[in-house]
Amino acid sequence: KVLRQKISNALRKCPESIFVFDEVDMMAPGVLNAIVPFLDYSPVIYHEESNERLITHRAIYIFLSNTGSQEILKTLVELWENGKHRHETKLSDFENLISLGAFNEKGGFHKSDTISTSVIDHYVPFLPMEQEHVIMCIKAAFSDRGYKATAEEINEVLAHVTFGPPPHNLYAKSGCKRLEQKVASVVFRRYKD
């Protein structure tokens, strides 16, 4: 009820509101069922208490989740084994498995009306990063510090990144997390010397 009230109040102030729900996989199952009326295809709903008309079809709802990450990784490896590179993948390669994963895995979407009523328009995967993407993060972290890194320094930071799954080890297990700290230690050491 609190969630519905907050959304109603936001829509009353601004029908073009953007709502971001982070770590949906950590939410209790069923919590998001409360917002199905806002997501449904009806352009207007009526506020529960005031019976005020709320325009709902202009709002954007973004749900961030790690749901389906293992299935995404497995599918990406299979596509790679069949000769398809990460940058050649399409949304359709992942959309259905994210939807199924979200519905079946523990978390905020588990057996949720939000999914079973088909009110979510797009499921967009966060694909794991390959070495080239991690190197871009490393270069950006050095650049943010006003430091022009050598190939040796970039590789020194890259050595701290774990790639998987075996046997190909194509994707960074933690993406670009913790790279800032590794870059900071390299820069500090260089300035110290």
TrEMBL record:
Q: Where is the Torsin-1A C-terminal domain?
A: 130-183
Q: Which GO terms describe its cellular component?
A: cytoplasm; endomembrane system
Q: Report the domain of life of the source organism.
A: Eukaryota
One record GO biological process: cellular response to misfolded protein
Q: Tell me where in this chain the ATPase AAA-type core domain is found.
A: 8-81
Q: Which InterPro entries did the record assign?
A: ATPase_AAA_core, P-loop_NTPase, TOR1A_C, Torsin
The record's section on Gene3D superfamilies has: P-loop containing nucleotide triphosphate hydrolases
TM ranges: none
One term of GO molecular function? ATP hydrolysis activity
**Family affiliation:** Belongs to the ClpA/ClpB family. Torsin subfamily.
Query: What is this protein's record name?
Result: ATPase AAA-type core domain-containing protein
**Source species of the chain:** Bracon brevicornis
